Structures are given as structure tokens and as C-alpha cells.
């Protein structure tokens, strides 16, 4: 049975735990400064500036449990790697390709540069979505805006 509201179990009593005896159940009552110190000792770098207290607790608890159980299972690691590759895989557009779209009565032409960046109105963008945002003024999928199927 797990003792805290997050449903996470205590690992401070695990033999050989080198993590300063941090008790997951005690994270709920720890102050922000104490949580930040736990983060630095576990992760080795300062946390993001505006991270919420609840997210700090969840990440610290995850890191503690991960160290206790020696990380992810081999199967989960493989699934995460495949998911990461799937997210990174996106169409590579040939340099010199053009995307043409009429928007609010004006024709916009975007060209793919040699480095894979997108050029529009003498500006360079790292993605088609950033280019579409510059044209429309709001966040929009570059693929949808230009009618490209990924």
C-alpha cells in the first residue's frame, strides 16, 4: 500500500539508498527550498524557474523510484526510443522546394533553404509551423496551413 496522496511508495528505507534518505511520503510536507535541493542532488542541475510544486514532487518521486528499481525495463526503454524516433521523423523537404498559399487575399511563397530552414519575406524559420504563425499571427499547423500531408 502506498502512503502518500500521489500514490507513490516510500523508498528511503531501501538498503544502500544514497539519495540522502529522501522519503517520498515526506515530499508532500517538504518546503519548496527543500524540494529544490532534492532536485539538484538527484538530477544534478537546477530545476526550471517556474516549475510547480506538484510537478517538482512528481519528478523527484519518479527519480527516486527509478534509482531504486534501476531505471526503466528494457521493454519500456525500447518503446520510448521508438516513440521518440517517430516524433522526430518528419518529411524532409528538398532544398529549393516552394510552398504557395493564398491567405487573406495575398499570395505567400515559402522556400526551403539549403539548410532545411524556411524562408518567407526575407525571414528564416526553423519549421513550417513557425512560418505559418508569422503569416497568420496565430499558432497553426504548418502542414495544415500549406496543405502538406506528412
UniProtKB/TrEMBL annotation:
Pfam family, one: DUF2924
InterPro entries: DUF2924 (IPR021322)
Protein name (record): DUF2924 domain-containing protein
Amino acid at each position: 500500500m502506498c502512503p502518500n496522496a500521489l500514490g507513490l511508495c516510500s523508498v528511503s528505507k531501501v538498503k544502500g539508498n544514497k539519495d540522502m534518505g529522501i522519503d517520498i511520503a515526506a515530499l508532500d510536507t517538504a518546503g519548496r527550498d527543500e524540494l529544490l535541493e532534492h532536485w539538484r542532488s538527484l538530477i544534478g542541475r537546477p530545476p526550471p524557474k517556474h516549475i510547480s510544486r506538484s510537478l517538482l514532487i512528481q519528478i523527484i518521486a519518479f527519480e527516486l523510484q527509478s534509482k531504486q528499481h534501476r531505471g526503466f525495463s528494457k521493454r519500456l526503454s525500447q518503446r520510448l526510443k521508438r516513440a521518440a524516433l517517430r516524433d522526430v521523423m518528419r518529411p524532409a523537404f528538398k532544398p529549393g522546394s516552394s510552398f504557395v498559399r493564398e491567405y487573406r487575399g495575398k499570395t505567400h511563397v515559402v522556400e526551403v533553404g539549403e539548410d532545411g530552414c524556411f524562408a518567407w519575406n526575407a525571414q528564416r524559420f526553423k519549421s513550417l509551423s513557425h512560418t505559418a504563425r508569422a503569416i497568420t499571427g496565430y499558432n497553426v499547423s504548418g502542414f495544415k496551413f500549406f496543405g502538406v500531408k506528412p
